[in-house]
Design brief:
The protein has 9 helices and no strands. The protein is an all-alpha fold and 200 residues long. It has one domain. InterPro entries: HPP, TM_HPP. Keywords: Membrane, Transmembrane, Transmembrane helix.
Length: 200
């Protein structure tokens, strides 16, 4: 037991220490990715709905940006987790809202709790997904009126924008690689080698 605690403490210390070693270049790419990703969603919103209806720029996208641009190696930041976590949570949130629409003290905890379990079950755990489920049951105005369209837009469409931006900005330098899946890394490595040979 003591060995397990000591090992967990050592790993935690290492992870925390490693996170503090991010250099200014990493800050730059994290900033640029988040700025462009959220900026694109905000731009679409500003040109398609009135200023009072925040239906494309949902709060959980901000939390996702922290992961997919600032902690790109995290298992919770990978594409499967980003898209799957949000979409599953949105489906759960809308379903709970349809079952118990006017009992917020029941619908809110049910939406978050079920979304966590469903993300765990499907191996798509993404913390901002809990907020996506909560938004579906606690919002007023346009979002409740969308019903299951909420899953497609803003949730899925926003996730795709964030993901495409992450794939672009997180792979512009050799020091950053996203997603962290080994198959994708091999494809990127082959592409870099092929480009290098062509230049020669």
């Amino acid at each position: 037991m003591k060995k397990t605690i000591k090992r967990t403490f050592r790993v935690s210390k290492y992870v925390i220490y490693k996170e503090t070693l991010v250099d200014y270049k990493e800050h730059f790419w994290s900033f640029l990715g988040a700025f462009v990703g959220i900026g694109l969603i905000a731009f679409i919103q500003s040109h398609s709905v009135s200023a009072t209806e925040n239906i494309f720029l949902i709060g959980s996208f901000g939390a996702s940006s922290v992961l997919i641009y600032g902690a790109i190696q995290s298992p919770l930041a990978q594409p499967r987790n980003l898209v799957g976590g949000h979409v599953i949570s949105a489906i759960v949130g809308v379903t709970i809202y349809k079952i118990v629409p006017d009992i917020i003290w029941l619908s809110a905890p049910l939406a978050v709790a079920f979304s966590i379990v469903m993300m765990q079950y499907t191996k798509t755990l993404h913390p901002p997904g809990g907020a996506t489920a909560l938004i579906a049951v606690s919002s007023v105005g346009k979002i409740p009126e969308l019903g299951y369209w909420y899953v497609l837009s803003p949730v899925l469409s926003g996730c795709i924008i964030l993901l495409l931006t992450a794939l672009l900005f997180n792979n512009l330098t050799p020091n950053r690689s996203y997603p962290s899946h080994s198959r994708f890394k091999r494809l990127l490595r082959k592409k870099h080698e092929h480009t290098h040979k062509m230049k020669k």
